[in-house]
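Supplementary Text 2. Reproducibility record for the structural model of the 113-residue chain.

All settings were left at their defaults, and a single model was retained for analysis rather than an ensemble. We include the record here because the model underlies the residue-level annotations in Supplementary Table 4.
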Amino acid sequence: MAYYFLILHFLFILYMVVGFIVGLIVNHRTFRFVHAALLAFVTVLMILKIPCPLTVLEEHFSSRDYEGSFLATWLNRIIYMEWFDAGAVFVADMTFAMLVFTSFIWRPPPPGR
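Retained model, structure tokens:
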């Protein structure tokens, strides 16, 4: 069961990173606002030092049976960025959030779409 949350977590992160680029290219109003709202949610969690709900679910359902899996090992490394300091991850998130939020000024979404 933890596998599913691990994959969902990875897909969420992929949406957050790739979704910004796709949102700028397509410039779909709803897509961009949903993306920005989810990023704001994640950023608030980081500021308040509240664990991500997907992380909590992964830990709740985790078992030792997927520890040796190649996919699980690399997804864990990518998701939790083990090679970065927590402060660096926080700065990267804040920088990305500012980029996304200011994109509404320099690439405004079309009205009413």
